[in-house]
């Protein structure tokens, strides 16, 4: 009858009344109601531990301590609640839920080498540790799961709430976190809103979420490893003043690290590897700085900034993924500084819906596309792109794209611009040793200044109007090609081609001023090539050094032939008979 009455009161009022606060049974019943009505619940209070079964106070133990050691609970609660399986003094099995009330604490220390939490067949039979305005200190031990197996088992979790402190030092937590639609607060190990603490030298293995900071304050993460999480490895959401020094997330079932909800934060010392999703995923936020991030073989991408305003990625090292660094989503304004990106499908992707982006310095190598610019107001300065199928692509809704001092080496195609883009400018761009075309442009109004293209089948292929100023072309099979109907202007061009200098197809027109074109067929095609100013058209320079070398070789052959002819009748010298070693 008492249980029914208190259950009704808890359902109506939701919190303990003054009468309940003074009555241990009523207070325990309210706690039992709030925590999901577990079969067995240990309520730890300062100096007191209550054993609650099915909502009823079964027994009370007087600890006389604010912070209770786990070994004390083993001695004083009984094996049905917390015991030592098989009599092993270094192993403890927890068979009940544990609630840390305000002002209380629990310490799990080095004496207990392993703590086994019993997985339940239902949420009522599950085990967990929760608390608020309390402390939980875990050191030099392993927290693991035992009990029922299979996909339906209810896994344990640890969750610290407002005003609480959770510290995990030199310990391992494995197999934790409710699955399915359970609250994210119970997804493994969680520092909740208003809590604090640390994880130092800790490992989190096979949890639903390795560890989660959700509204916490001042949590320290140092030398933390998260592996084989079922979902995200690490979630940092709405946390403040978090300190990170050495955080590794590997083989996560979703993303390696998810960051969001906190403005103007800096994160460094993070490594992700082999995530099924993205290595680091930044959700909408302002002022995020990612410094020195490393991502290896994260299958969904290395770093993704989603609607991230005034965000900066500095010194990122990413390899072996789909997109090494992606900036996407409305309102995105991002800066990527000195990246080291390799072996990915796309090095840097700047999507159509962003507001602006800047890339400075760094290298991109061994990708199918080095840099893909699809959004507006993008600036790329001083970046080197090497050994890609396409070095740099400007496409989609790109407009006002400015490329300065970019170097593209050893790619199949150096750079492409599509017909959907406008106001694209290249200044000081160098394209060398491409096996295909150096620059292919269908962007109307393309402007190229102080550029240099060498070693291409066609150095510049224009399918839209363009302005070329002070462009140098060397070592190309064909210098400049204009497709039918294109109009272009060139000033101070210097074209040295192996076969064709400038070729204009039918209906195409190019005006060249104060330029030099040197090729066996300097000007060709059915279009018009109009020369102005001091434009010079000549054959390529004669290779005098090579000719001299060939002449010297031919002279040597001739002299040797004359020598052999003159001495063809000269008898061979005879060897004296007493000489035997003539072999």
TrEMBL record:
InterPro entries the record matches: Beta_helix, PbH1, Pectin_lyas_fold, Pectin_lyase_fold/virulence
Pfam families linked: Beta_helix (PF13229)
Keyword list, A-Z: Membrane, Signal, Transmembrane, Transmembrane helix
Sequence intervals crossing the membrane: 542-562
Segments forming domain Right handed beta helix: 197-332
Extent of the signal sequence: 1-21
Domain of life: Bacteria
Protein's recorded name: Right handed beta helix domain-containing protein
Organism expressing this protein natively: Streptomyces griseorubiginosus
């Amino acid at each position: 009858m008492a249980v029914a009455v208190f259950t009704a009161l808890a359902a109506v009022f939701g919190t303990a009344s003054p009468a309940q606060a003074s009555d241990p049974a009523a207070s325990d019943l309210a706690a039992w109601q709030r925590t999901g009505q577990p079969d067995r619940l240990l309520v730890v209070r300062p100096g007191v531990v209550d054993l609650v079964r099915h909502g009823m106070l079964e027994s009370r133990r007087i600890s006389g301590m604010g912070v209770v050691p786990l070994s004390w609970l083993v001695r004083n609660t009984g094996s049905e609640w917390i015991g030592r399986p098989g009599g092993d003094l270094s192993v403890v099995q927890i068979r009940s839920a544990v609630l840390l009330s305000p002002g209380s604490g629990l310490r799990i220390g080095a004496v207990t080498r392993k703590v086994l939490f019993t997985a339940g067949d239902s949420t009522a039979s599950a085990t967990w540790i929760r608390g608020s305005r309390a402390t939980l200190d875990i050191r030099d031990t392993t927290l693991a799961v035992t009990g029922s197996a299979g996909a339906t088992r209810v896994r344990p979790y640890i969750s610290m709430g407002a005003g609480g402190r959770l510290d995990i030092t030199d310990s391992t937590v494995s197999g934790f976190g409710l699955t399915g639609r359970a609250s994210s607060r119970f997804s493994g190990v969680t520092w909740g809103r208003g809590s604090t603490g640390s994880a130092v030298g800790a490992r989190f293995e096979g949890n639903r979420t390795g560890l989660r900071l959700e509204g916490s304050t001042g949590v320290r993460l140092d030398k933390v490893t998260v592996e084989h999480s079922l979902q995200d490895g690490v979630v940092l959401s709405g946390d403040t003043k978090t300190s990170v020094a050495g955080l590794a997330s590997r083989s996560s079932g979703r993303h390696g690290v998810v960051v969001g909800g906190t403005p103007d934060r800096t994160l460094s010392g993070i490594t992700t590897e082999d995530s099924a999703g993205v290595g680091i995923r930044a959700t909408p936020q302002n002022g995020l700085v990612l410094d020195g991030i490393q991502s290896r073989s994260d299958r969904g991408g290395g770093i993704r900034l989603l609607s991230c305003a005034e965000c900066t990625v500095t010194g990122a090292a990413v390899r072996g993924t789909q997109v090494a660094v992606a900036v996407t989503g409305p309102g995105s304004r991002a800066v990527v500084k000195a990246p080291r990106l390799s072996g990915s499908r796309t090095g840097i992707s700047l999507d159509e819906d962003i507001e602006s982006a800047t890339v400075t310095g760094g290298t991109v190598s061994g990708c199918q596309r080095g840099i893909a610019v699809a959004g507006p107001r993008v600036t790329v300065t001083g970046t080197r792109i090497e050994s890609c199928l396409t070095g740099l692509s400007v496409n989609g809704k790109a407009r006002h794209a400015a490329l300065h001092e970019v170097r593209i080496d050893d790619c199949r195609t150096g750079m492409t611009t599509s017909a959907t883009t406008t106001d694209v400018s290249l200044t000081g761009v160098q394209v060398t040793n491409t096996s295909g075309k150096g620059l292919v442009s269908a962007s109307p109004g393309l402007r190229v200044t102080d550029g240099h293209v060498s070693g291409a089948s066609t150095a510049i292929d224009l399918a839209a109007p363009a302005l070329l100023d002070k462009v140098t072309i060397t070592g190309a099979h064909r210098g400049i090609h204009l497709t039918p109907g294109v109009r272009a202007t060139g000033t101070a061009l210097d074209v040295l081609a192996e076969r064709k200098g400038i070729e204009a197809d039918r209906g195409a027109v190019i005006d060249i001023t104060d330029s030099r074109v040197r090729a066996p067929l300097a000007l060709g095609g059915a279009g018009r090539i109009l020369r102005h100013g001091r434009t010079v058209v000549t054959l390529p320079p004669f290779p005098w050094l090579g000719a001299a070398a060939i002449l010297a070789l031919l002279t040597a052959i001739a002299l040797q032939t004359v020598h052999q002819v003159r001495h063809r009748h000269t008898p061979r010298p005879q060897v004296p008979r007493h000489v035997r070693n003539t072999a």
